[in-house]
Design brief:
Largest sheet: none
Order of helices and strands: HH
Distance between the termini: 13 Å
Number of domains: 1
Helix content: over 70%
Strand content: under 5%
């Protein structure tokens, strides 16, 4: 498990939520879409780390 990768992914997720909310408030669809994309990227990173953790558990 890479704590650093999880922390970065969590930070990106929060950044994406803020950007998406700002896009919603200002009516900027580009900001909203970019914020959602950051959240999806963070979710993918978390999923990757979950798979790595599971493989490590099975090996150990």
């Amino acid at each position: 498990m890479s704590i650093d990768e999880r922390v970065e992914a969590t930070a990106k997720n929060i950044e994406g939520k803020v950007q998406e909310a700002a896009g919603e408030i200002t009516g900027d669809p580009k900001d909203k879409a970019e914020g959602r994309a950051k959240q999806v990227e963070a979710e993918a990173t978390h999923a990757k780390e979950d798979v790595k953790d599971e493989v490590k558990r099975k090996i150990d």
